[in-house]
Amino acid sequence: MTAPDRLAEMTTREAADAVARGTVVLIPAGALEQHGPGMVLGTDLVRAEGVVARVAANLAGRVVVGPSIPVGVSPHHMAFPGTVTLTTTTFAAVVREYVTSLHRHGWTRFLVVTGHGGNNATLTAVAQDLLVSHPGIQLAWSPLTSLAGDAVAALDPSPVHGHSGEAETAQMLHLAPHLVHTDRLEPGTTTHDELDDVSRTARHHAQPTLTLPYDRLSANGVLGDPRRATAEDGAAIVKAIVARITAFLEEWPAA
Amino acid sequence: MTAPDRLAEMTTREAADAVARGTVVLIPAGALEQHGPGMVLGTDLVRAEGVVARVAANLAGRVVVGPSIPVGVSPHHMAFPGTVTLTTTTFAAVVREYVTSLHRHGWTRFLVVTGHGGNNATLTAVAQDLLVSHPGIQLAWSPLTSLAGDAVAALDPSPVHGHSGEAETAQMLHLAPHLVHTDRLEPGTTTHDELDDVSRTARHHAQPTLTLPYDRLSANGVLGDPRRATAEDGAAIVKAIVARITAFLEEWPAA
Amino acid sequence: MTAPDRLAEMTTREAADAVARGTVVLIPAGALEQHGPGMVLGTDLVRAEGVVARVAANLAGRVVVGPSIPVGVSPHHMAFPGTVTLTTTTFAAVVREYVTSLHRHGWTRFLVVTGHGGNNATLTAVAQDLLVSHPGIQLAWSPLTSLAGDAVAALDPSPVHGHSGEAETAQMLHLAPHLVHTDRLEPGTTTHDELDDVSRTARHHAQPTLTLPYDRLSANGVLGDPRRATAEDGAAIVKAIVARITAFLEEWPAA
Amino acid sequence: MTAPDRLAEMTTREAADAVARGTVVLIPAGALEQHGPGMVLGTDLVRAEGVVARVAANLAGRVVVGPSIPVGVSPHHMAFPGTVTLTTTTFAAVVREYVTSLHRHGWTRFLVVTGHGGNNATLTAVAQDLLVSHPGIQLAWSPLTSLAGDAVAALDPSPVHGHSGEAETAQMLHLAPHLVHTDRLEPGTTTHDELDDVSRTARHHAQPTLTLPYDRLSANGVLGDPRRATAEDGAAIVKAIVARITAFLEEWPAA
Amino acid sequence: MTAPDRLAEMTTREAADAVARGTVVLIPAGALEQHGPGMVLGTDLVRAEGVVARVAANLAGRVVVGPSIPVGVSPHHMAFPGTVTLTTTTFAAVVREYVTSLHRHGWTRFLVVTGHGGNNATLTAVAQDLLVSHPGIQLAWSPLTSLAGDAVAALDPSPVHGHSGEAETAQMLHLAPHLVHTDRLEPGTTTHDELDDVSRTARHHAQPTLTLPYDRLSANGVLGDPRRATAEDGAAIVKAIVARITAFLEEWPAA
Amino acid sequence: MTAPDRLAEMTTREAADAVARGTVVLIPAGALEQHGPGMVLGTDLVRAEGVVARVAANLAGRVVVGPSIPVGVSPHHMAFPGTVTLTTTTFAAVVREYVTSLHRHGWTRFLVVTGHGGNNATLTAVAQDLLVSHPGIQLAWSPLTSLAGDAVAALDPSPVHGHSGEAETAQMLHLAPHLVHTDRLEPGTTTHDELDDVSRTARHHAQPTLTLPYDRLSANGVLGDPRRATAEDGAAIVKAIVARITAFLEEWPAA
Fold first, then answer.
1. What are phi and psi of F104, to 5 degrees?
2. C196-217: per-residue pLDDT in tens?
3. Which of C161, D109, E150, F42 is deepest in the core (most CB within 10 A)?
4. What ipTM does this complex have?
5. Contact exists between B and E (3 or more beta carbon pairs < 8 Å)
6. Which residue does chain C place closest to A89, by CA atoms?
């Protein structure tokens, strides 16, 4: 069966109908980047697509799902084999041309759901530039994990926690357990004492913000202890994320 | 089960192993563009991914499959709703940064398999620029349908034949029949008499080459008569394409 | 008297000495954009420069202050006369070339202190791109008001509060009272009820993030009630900001 | 005497008249690149200009000849002294701005005649981008030698044959014999056995397409045996090319 | 007190009034670059701002002063610590976006006053490009010292004279004596005999023009003998410059 | 016969010899732009090529002549049919890539001789950027008419004089009389009284510099009275230009 909300699985006439219905375009975005010894390079897109599918199910007929953007802004992971990065300029151009193409057909509201935090800044920059160049477009974007603060806190994650750690691994155990090598999961940096001086400064202060390469933050690319993640935790996190994005979309007026 | 040849489903350590094995990176590329009343916007990527999966099966362990590039260069279809186009500059940047990222990890040979002919010129341009900027990279690219000349001829296609016509529809009936609305297939422009003067000039001469928008060539975006396509024809075409690409890869030396 | 920590007021030989001492370069960044009926277009830079001067005084000899970047990314204010905006591409290029020029002379640590939140995303993007192109550079950036959460909360600001509101006006009353026309201060949008549907959605959800033009958010460009600000509040906010940035710089190791 | 069809030799008023007549603009494009020991760096432009002059003579008053573009996309020849290459981005910009400038004066049809195959891909890319940015422009382009398949086959060229080989040398002997050093002509790579493994793969398969530098394909930069070329062969090839381009132009309607 | 002609010190409503009055926007531009052992890196902006302030005082109410551009095109000084350079592309983008932003609010006439000759060429290039992209804008630019030929000649400068020499030092002694370390002023290259062969060629011929790095022209970055400068000379030079710019502005009609 | 100093007429081996001899590369640059009712669009390149040929004859074996750049920066003439303009960005890219290509083969000294003053600023900008990106390159450029001040003054030109006026027409009467329609020469703007207010301001002040479109300066695109030009005047001007450029090249040391 086709998924009737996926743009790639619509004909052009179905697309025209979707415009006429005033749908919002959801765009999953990921990264191809290291996720430690036990998770796969495509982890971020798997999570974004999983969330978008659930949101789309909640809002059947009111959204369409555009093709995923599978590679993103990942310079901080380039020391780890398999990682691909786009410059921020190129990632921005992809998003801008994707969205403005669809705007020519009549869509006005777009939500990029990114499984990768490295894309956030560029998504904001694109939205800013569009305010002047295409005032008829409303471009929103959403992260994943940070929408589920309570569920993540319930995991009681490690003092240093983040990329490929408890919360991210939990989501994967829920969404795509076949892509988690549970036997290979290894803890990464879990305490501030393990960080070198520069990394500790960067982690200590959310702001001022200091961007560092991940090989400096963690020898195996992991922040936190993914062995502590469970699928149940992941289900709770995903549920919270989906609820937040769904609520946003339900509020967002067409005008 | 994971597909062990998909880069997105490898860990970073598996990626390092794949580099060490001297694998070639295969990259499916598509388009999101109109394919007439009966086929879906994502048709080109579906076909590229289908071919790549078969090639990869033939060459297990000797290739890896990178993330697909789902949108391409489709300005000629922009009159039809749902089409997305990147400028040639942006599409080139995506391919270049994708490939050079992986080259930093040690890969040297790349084959982009594009289901969309509108990407061909830009792929050549990227390969040219890399000769100077990254002489250690060998970037090849391949189309689909034109590799299967005999099998297409056996279809006895319409005098005007091409986009969304007999050969392309046949491939989809073989690769993804659930994405073909056979009840909605309609013939497009099938004879030179139906073309306007400019379109006839463009079709009459392969060279000089004149690029025209598809709404000028065909009212419904189709060239040929997709109703005449069969899954058997498609199987023959796909088989020929896969054989040609496999043969190329088997010959391509690592040095 | 010259200010010995300002790069523009050093000779080239003094600059060489500052490199040899391992100084951090502080770069104030602002915007030229509307700040409502009572505050001036240059407000953001005035605040950034005020903070930087105080931080530099705390760390005499350990930092140098580079020339200010007086215009930034302000597309959301372009409906209001006098606003200047750079595209994110151009703002990024300025920061990148500024920083890489100084890196050629030996500096490795840079902190951009931006009085304008519209610059934040681009600063992050620049820092990301530098990880690959110039791994020897550490580029940090800092906002202002969000470093002083407690002091701002103590103001008991309006339910809708932000640009040109209580907290920003307070800072100006402390740092540059001659640039605040207290007799012309007017409340802007102060409650969610005053927002239109789209604006309410955007303000309701910090994430997903929806960037809107300010003329949609507020008729006079103000969020909050600047009449409620006092210089004392501003002093507390500035003190908190300066303390946070100073602490960051004291921790930041040279290596 | 002036050549009345050359734009560079018209006054602005004559140019205005040429627009009013509905002329097509012909643009010769070349390369500055090695052509082996016996032919000159400017060979490609000499051939393009020779063909264009003959086409223009056939269509007097219906075409104008714009200034030649003397350098093109030649990264594959950069190992040989004297070669100049533009990036594909820059070559594209030159063609685009050249054509759009003339479009502002009212011209709508343009034919770039390129003596250098390395320009082909970029010319297609420019034509694609113009479909969206300048839908009023029709940009066609033409190669040379590939228009004369029968005449080239009649030469019975070497098994490996191409750049600076029999067919190209023949054209030069006809068009500009003073620029061929017949005493210095040397055979280059003429058989597949002389190719290394990678080059053989690339030549064996027209598609997939693998672009290689010429110093890998041939020690002296030549493919084929130019000593076998005659001016008579060249006359036949040029005649065929001119006929094909003339026929195209005669068909191309103004609308 | 605020300076009522400084855009940064106006509210958005005052800016709207300034547009309505038909004011010209003056933009001081500088450089951050070496000025020898005795003058500061910011010398060029200090001089530009000093001149602009005097011009604005002459034309009160008829001009507004935009934010200064503090860094410019200084590649020729990059061998000297502290110098920052923008590429010409980036400097051009800053000027273009600055000016076109203000043009959206209604301003049409702009004068960039540059204290740094390295910016001249790019300012001309921006003005050229704007003729096509924004025909409603008139962008003028002015240097400083070359407007005061007689006053400079009266100084009887050294045979080789220029950057950081008599005339520039004199201006600084008049405008900002606290930024001149008179005890550290040292002569630089003062005679043609001290130049190497290439530098002598470049200085001998104003045209053809050969741009050289300053470390080749002078060991300490100075051309001329700054010790011979006096504040009185500087006053005469500044007076002449201000008079010339004022006269230009008085003539420049609004239409 | 071939012209042995033209790069386009050399083989790659001859090019290698020319590098080894330490030759300077001369590059003629022009424009395709209106030159009034009596002179042709390509006038500027004709003059540049004429001068370069004479300089090359003076310095046989010490220079090579690269392909001409036939279109340049001519936005100010776009109101007149037939004019082509490149953006300054594109013209810069062409020059930069042309020169850096040849630098890879070993050339280090380049002189662009431009018959069109609109190219001057961009040529300077390219030379500036190369100081940082390619410090091994020395890029000089030269105008034409301004090198012959005495010879032009001897013409006693009109009070308003310049583009397509006495001095330029005289050069063409000497260099390419067949391209001057003497029967169609018409005076353009010859006195300040004929200028509108803005044009008068721009012409009155060489500095500040205000760039205006030519249709504002002159109804027929001419400044001065070309009917007063003679071939003898042109010979004197060309002789002076050639002497100045030759002298520069004779002085320019290889190191």
1. -60, -25
2. 999 999 999 889 999 999 999 9
3. F42
4. 0.97
5. no
6. C89
